[in-house]
Amino acid sequence: MIVIAAQAGLGFPNGPGAAASRVSCYARGLRAAGHDVVVLCLGTSEPSPPAVPVNREVSGLLDGIPFEYTCGTTIRPMRYWRRRWLRLRGLVGAALRIRRLAGAAGIEAVLLYSDSSLEAASLHFVARSVGAAYIVDLCELPYHGLCGMTLGRLRRSLYNRTFFRWFDGAIAISDSLRRHALTYGPSGLVVTSAPAMVDTDEFRPGGAASGSPVVMYCGMLNQQKDGVLSLLRAFAGLARNTTDARLSLVGDSPRGSRIRQFRASADRLGITDRVTFVGNVAQRETPTYLPQATVLVLARPRSPQADAGMPTKLAEYLASGVPVVVTRTGEIPTLLEDRVNAYLIPPDDEAALENALRYVLSHPEEARAVGHRGRELAVERLDYRVVGAHVADFVAGLGRASQFVGASE
After folding, report:
1. How many domains does the chain have?
2. What's the whole-model pTM score?
3. Is there a domain that residue 51 lies in?
4. Which domain holds residue 152?
5. For 12, 93, 107, 162, which has the most beta carbons within 10 A of its beta carbon?
6. Does 187 share its domain with 257?
7. pLDDT tens per residue, range 15-69
8. Same domain, 186 and 331
9. Tens of pLDDT, residues 201-248
10. Taking a C-beta distance cutoff of 8 angstroms, is the pair 362, 380 a contact?
11. Helix axes 312-319 and 18-32, enclosed angle (nearest 10)
12. Is 228 found in the same domain as 110?
């Protein structure tokens, strides 16, 4: 059995965003590879009332995989001390649950999806007590938002030199993070890479979009991470010479809506009547939206986060079979080839983005072929069953591989 321990706030199993999707793909991929899997959520994920919770069930099944909120609730309380108590209860509850599972069936590995030092240290001792390998998943550069601040650099340095010491192995979403773990981890740390994952069956192509061409972005409304304002400005330039194209923005912010802010930007650009704000959608609803697009866009700016990561939404974009315009950041240029399986543009270049959109819309046959090849790549390299088999092999070989100093697959 493999236990996946997921950080507080994840929003499993129904939360929007990359974190819930990656944990779900891990669980289903390992199960497809022949492992029993349990997902333990270490803390609450839903805001306090009057907000409507997306995840209500404290325990249940996702595609036959058991999950449980070990703190006993999905709702984040208003009171500070109540939140502290639930954090402690979640860690203790996870420890007790892992011990019970180990006594009943044995545990091969504990896979932690969290960047919390407290959670890392706590579950280290639990994994050791049941004889399980202890592995961490790495999706982002730690403290990437504080790179220019002295305090941030100090916190990041302390984190790097202490966090990795707890683990036997690490799974990194990019080669950059794989090297990061090898640099700061202990000599016996074994590291492998596992890219962004997607269920390619869920994102089957839905046929060519009919009617007016639709430029679509799906994700958080955020400029710093995903360049949504840059997309609005590029689309405004495109709209001046294209009478019928529309822009669809699917998603919002999980902490307070930003639609009003971005709608105001669209109004200043004179494109309000050409932009549709869909708002947040559940993760399982995303596959119904992407095939409606003529072209999917990810205008991610250059940043430490972008340089180290690989966006889950890109895997979903590719799986949809819709042609993708994406910036050359992080792992993306090593995965994709321009005008072969996607259209690659420089980051922070709105003119290049506008020109790429115009080119895709004016070359529909080529674009459809590029989209088809993008899906083929997703099926071959990013499907959760493919990645899950690799992770299962990594777990099985962890004891053997850890004999080699600084080993990496």
Report:
1. 2
2. 0.90
3. yes
4. 2-197+384-401
5. 12
6. no
7. 777 888 999 999 999 999 999 999 999 999 888 876 778 888 999 998 899 999 9
8. no
9. 999 887 655 678 999 999 999 999 999 999 999 999 999 987 799 999
10. no
11. 70
12. no
